[in-house]
Amino acid sequence: MSLLPLAFKNLARKPFRTWALVLAVAIAGGAVFSTATVMWGVERSMKQGLSKFGADLLVIPRGALVNMKTALLTGEPSAFYMNSGFASEVKTIAGVAKVSPQIFLTTADGEHCTIGNAFLVGFDPDTDFTVMPWLLARPKEPFGKAHAIVGGNNGYQAGDTVLFYGQTFTVYGKLDRTGIGLYDNAVFIHIDKAYELADASKQLSDVAALGFARGDISALLVQIGNSSKAGLVRFAVSRNPAVKVVTAGNIVTSVRQNLVALFTGTVVLSIVLVLGNILMISAIFSTIVNERKKELGLLRAIGAKKQAVFRLILSESTLLTAMGGALGILIGAVLMRVYARTIGFHLESLNIPFMWPPFGQIAMLGALSVLLALLVGALGAVWPALAGSRMDPYDAIRAGE
Questions:
Q1: Pairwise CA distance, residues 379 & 201, whole Å
Q2: I need a surface site. Which of 146, 276, 285, 342 has the fewest CB within 10 A?
Q3: pLDDT (tens digit, 9 = 90+) per residue, 81-102?
Q4: CB neighbour list of residue 10: distance below 8 Å, 6 or more residues apart
Q5: 67-to-81, 258, 310 alpha-carbon distances in Å
Q6: Closest by Cα among 315, 330, 305 to 389
Q7: Using one digit for the tens of pLDDT, what is the confidence trace for 188-204?
Q8: Cβ partners under 8 Å of residue 369, min gap 6
């Protein structure tokens, strides 16, 4: 007995009910597909940006972990400090290849600063390995105290002048987009010049003085040797109770948690839709089995085995959910366009980049969504299929009359 043609005919007998079920499954599948794709895309963006960051470890004051993650991901100005003497200690740790200090400061509103409430980062060009490599074009002259480097999101170009705390800077160059909020939105200056700005801010009566002194730093960027083990180096650095060590993995985990929080409504809705579809398919196919008791009894009477009846009902359910899963891919594509205009815009406003996953990965997610739809159909129809296959042929024919 060929079950598929018979299953198609049975589904075609009630077109409204069939297409209503297909649409319900499609909506659930589309929500799952689009949410998974967007979440994967943002996480991939962060991993790619941080993989190019250059620093294997970030050493910061222990109490500044939240501020550092926020600064790194979104570029929101943050100020926290520790003594630079710890840098000499880190350099002596086995496995450490490079160490470079940075200090964070913010600009003030008013005539003394071209940009108010902007993120300034003082860095040491002699030890730097995370800023200068991102320059789109590097001038022949060396980077000096009168120079500034702007992030990829900044509107200034090489040769422009900017003013910070009454000090004039010439834009030395512009960084390529890194996918890291701090680097894309900050302005980078010589670390010695940052200390001069702190002194200058104390002479200005209409701005708050910068709260750090010479010798203070905000973070140490550490690069580990190729043959060294990151875990051992991190453990050695972490023995100082005054500091906290942040890795790229920590940051990606935070991004994932933030994404789950951002998409919680959609995730919960998707789960509710999937569970609702299982219950709905179970209820509807129970009704279908009751409607077709006489037909199923006749099939059994002419020699069809219980397994054949069971497979027939499951075939109808999987055909229905397979169509729903395929339609769900199209609905998911529409939802992703909506995400790009809404949630994508929100992420951009937080300076969190977004990159769609490669086509192969999107196709894999689409296939998994269809498989999920098939699983929903099988789980929903398994009990009605068992009930239909166990009916006695004579009783089923009598009940259907």
A1: 69
A2: 342
A3: 998 888 888 999 998 989 999 9
A4: 292, 312, 316
A5: 12, 15, 59
A6: 305
A7: 999 999 999 999 888 88
A8: 29, 30, 32, 33, 36, 325, 328, 329, 332
Contact 240, 89 (CB under 8 A): yes
Domain boundaries defined on the chain: 3-48+259-400, 107-215
On whether the CB atoms of residues 105 and 210 are closer than 8 A, the answer is yes
Q: Are strands 119-123 and 187-190 parallel, antiparallel or unpaired?
A: parallel
What pLDDT is attached to residue 277? 83
* Alpha-carbon torsion (129, 133, 138, 140), positive or negative: positive
Q: Are 36 and 363 in contact (CB under 8 A)?
A: no
Q: Which residues of the chain, if any, have pLDDT below 70?
A: 1-4, 43-54, 66, 69, 72-75, 179, 248-263, 303-304, 340, 343-355, 392-401
The CA distance from 336 to 330, in Å, is 10
pLDDT tens readout for residues 55-79:
788 898 988 876 776 776 666 777 8
**DSSP for 62-74?**
GGGHHHHHHHHHH
The three state secondary structure string of 292-320 is CHHHHHHHHHCCCCHHHHHHHHHHHHHHH
Q: pTM value?
A: 0.59
SS3 121: strand
Structure confidence by residue, pLDDT tens digits, 148-192: 999 988 889 999 999 999 899 999 999 987 767 777 888 999 999
Euclidean distance between CA atoms 111 and 30, whole angstroms: 53
Task: Report the interhelical angle of 15-51 vs 264-291 (nearest 10°).
Answer: 150
